[in-house]
Amino acid sequence: MEDNEFWRDIPPIDLTGRRCRAVTEHGTVIEGRLEYTLSRATQLPDEPALEQLSFADVFQPVILNLNDHVGNRLCTGYRSLEEVG
Q1: How many whole angstroms separate alpha carbon 50 and alpha carbon 39?
Q2: What is the pTM of this model?
Q3: How far apart are CA 51 and CA 76, in angstroms?
Q4: Angle at CA of residue 32, ends 26 and 37, nearest 5°
Q5: How far apart are CA 64 and CA 52, in angstroms?
């Protein structure tokens, strides 16, 4: 499975609900819709924000974005992510 990195430059919130398939470093395949989570250190809008995308019922997020300064990153533990429909 090849990682086409479609997700790298799209705002995480816009990836919410997309059906994707991820492969972990151990070869486990996870398929499902991406769920979005926004975390802030405080409730102030200028505080650092961490955006995450994960699959339902999977503790480890698949994509992280910190303050939209570095772009989306594939999380440690994953080899690839692709959209499947």
Answers
A1: 5
A2: 0.84
A3: 15
A4: 95
A5: 5
Q: Which amino acid is at 76?
A: T
Question: pLDDT tens track of the chain, all 85 residues?
Answer: 445 788 988 999 999 999 999 999 999 999 999 999 998 766 776 777 889 999 999 989 999 998 766 689 999 999 999 999 7
CA angle 47, 33, 26 (to 5 degrees): 90
Q: Give the C-alpha separation, 67 to 25, whole Å.
A: 26
| Nearest CA-CA partner of 17 in 60, 71, 69, 56 | 56
Please list, in sequence order, all residues whose beta carbon lies within 8 angstroms of the beta carbon of residue 25, skipping any fewer than 6 positions away: 77, 78, 79
